[in-house]
Design brief:
Structural class of chain B: alpha+beta
Number of strands of chain B: 7
Largest sheet of chain A: 5 strands, mixed
Radius of gyration of chain A: 21 Å
Number of domains of chain A: 1
Protein name (chain A): Lipoprotein
Oligomer: heterodimer
Structural class of chain A: alpha/beta
Strand content of chain A: 15-25%
Strand content of chain B: 15-25%
Distance between the termini of chain A: 65 Å
Radius of gyration of chain B: 19 Å
Number of helices of chain B: 11
Order of helices and strands of chain B: EEEEHHHEEEHHHHHHHH
Number of strands of chain A: 7
Shape of chain A: globular
Distance between the termini of chain B: 47 Å
Strand order of the largest sheet of chain B: 1-2-3-4
Helix content of chain B: 40-55%
Chain lengths: 197, 299
């Protein structure tokens, strides 16, 4: 009986500890899209950081998405309506390039993102070897250049994956952006790329 | 020709222009004066009959006046109320240089289509607080970018450790970022084609597989077109106390990752280390690789 009480007490403590850390485990899909992202974006070698910061950047993602959608709608409108050939030469290719943002997210997706990802998160460390096995890149020693995964988001359906990342080229120069992937036919991930602006 | 412009919120400006001939080339001379609520008077020279695909004035001379006036208004509308006193003083001096002041530099870049708003403040850059400075669109509470509205952050720690000429260079470089972003806005909002004069930037906008960092693309464009402008402005700001090479070396600061820099100054070149060390010395106000900073710190 004494041992049973101790065991129950221990299990309770363990459970509380697990709940308080709220650590998000990276699953097979996470590794799948991270590997595609790295192989698409970074043919050069870099220092891949194993820490996933978990920074809450979903608001910035939605803001940037809406900026890109606005660019598409505006350029598309000029492209359809202007009679100025010089403006058409600018606005039509921009509309063509930004068309991918049309209908990429639904209002439901945006509400879901706001409701689901409203705070910083804590991720387990990346298993870098698991990524390197499917990549030709080398992880270099030292601080720069370095790539840090900030967060990973999915829409409600799970057919849109977003990787928030930061790449530090040197002390003074870094890139912070979002890489978007769309799941096709519920089978494969199509890399759509990072935001343009 | 005399034009009176009652524009902006800050003052009324009287603009007088005339065309003179130097070495057989026509040069438009523009003088600004009578800024009613400001003691500042300015004399600026617009160098060329700047071409523009999207001027909002008439053809020829009027278009050139319009361009210069816009640059002047851009310079005058810079918001710097949250800039530290030392950087604010440097900014003020850059705005009042005789030959290479900020309005003239903007005019020399090309043709701003729209008078944009630029705020510069001393604070950690939002995108990456590790960077010494950063420029982006100003954003509303939903993180949506505001058209023709830009915001630059200069890191407080950088202000505390860098020399004044390094801060001047940083302000000028961020001004170039703002200018390039405004060209992107011009293209996205109005269909103006000025951005096509910066093909790296233009290609990135229309390539469907665009994955590059806009900041890096800006640096590539700046390294190809604006080194001399940066050099001239820094030299004038500093009173031309040093050899030209010093100012040119400083103009390369923050552009050391560009393909242009690597082509001109490969790893094996002796100039490369000198440029890197000169910039590091001024950025940190400390001796770097045997190079001593020449400018004073803010402290």
């Amino acid at each position: 009986m004494k041992y049973l009480v101790i065991s129950i007490f221990y299990l309770t403590i363990s459970s509380c500890a697990a709940q308080s850390s709220q650590e998000i485990r990276l699953n097979k899909t996470d590794y799948e899209i991270i590997t595609i992202f790295i192989n698409q974006m970074f043919p050069e070698n870099f220092n891949l950081l194993s820490e996933v910061s978990g920074d809450n950047v979903i608001k910035r993602f939605i803001g940037k998405y809406q900026d890109h959608l606005k660019v598409y709608k505006n350029s598309d409108s000029i492209c359809r309506n202007s009679k100025d050939i010089e403006k058409l030469k600018i606005s039509c290719p921009i509309a063509d390039s930004f068309q991918m943002y049309e209908n990429l997210l639904s209002d439901e997706d945006i509400s879901y993102f706001h409701g689901t990802y409203s705070h910083d998160e804590e991720f387990e460390k990346l298993n870098i070897n698991r990524i390197l096995n499917k990549s030709s890149m080398l992880v270099v020693e030292g601080n720069y250049p370095s790539l840090e995964i900030l967060n990973i988001y999915y829409n409600r359906k799970g057919d849109l994956g977003i990787i928030a990342y930061r790449k530090n080229y040197n002390k003074n120069e870094s890139e912070s952006n979002f890489y978007i992937l769309k799941k096709m036919k519920n089978i494969w991930w199509k890399p759509l790329g990072s935001f343009k602006l | 020709m005399e034009t009176k412009y009652a524009g902006g919120q800050q003052c009324s400006i009287k603009i007088t222009t005339k065309i003179v001939y130097i070495d057989g080339n026509s040069v438009l001379v523009t003088e600004y004066s009578g800024c009613d609520d400001s003691p500042m008077q300015k004399k600026a020279r617009s160098l060329t009959a700047a071409s523009s695909d999207c001027p909002d004035g008439d053809d020829g001379e009027v278009a050139v006046i319009s361009v210069t006036k816009k640059a002047f208004l851009i310079e005058n509308s810079i918001i710097s109320t949250q800039l530290d006193p030392c950087s604010s003083q440097i900014l003020s001096e850059l705005k009042n240089l005789q030959q290479n002041d900020m309005a003239m530099i903007i005019s020399r870049f090309g043709t701003p289509n729209t008078v944009y708003d630029w705020e510069i403040k001393t604070a950690n850059p939002l995108i990456n607080s590790n960077n010494d400075a950063g420029t982006d669109w100003k954003r509303d509470s939903n993180d949506n970018a505001l058209d023709y509205n830009y915001l630059t952050h200069i890191k407080p720690n950088y202000i505390n450790q860098a020399t004044q000429i390094a801060i001047a260079r940083t302000i000028l470089l961020e001004m170039l970022h703002v200018y390039l972003i405004s060209l992107v806005d011009d293209a996205l909002i109005t269909g103006c084609s000025e951005v096509t004069n910066f093909p790296i930037l233009w290609n990135a906008l229309v390539n469907k597989t665009y994955n590059n960092n806009p900041n890096r693309l800006h640096h590539e464009e700046i390294s190809r077109k604006f080194i001399t402008l940066l050099q001239d402005a820094l030299k004038e700001w500093d009173g031309a106390k040093e050899f030209n090479r010093y100012y040119e070396d400083l103009a390369w600061g923050a552009l050391e990752c560009t393909s242009t820099f690597n082509l001109l100054y490969p790893n094996s070149s002796t100039s490369r280390n000198r440029i890197l060390n000169t910039n590091r010395a001024e950025d940190t106000n400390s001796m770097q690789g045997g190079v001593t900073p020449k400018s004073n710190s803010c402290n």
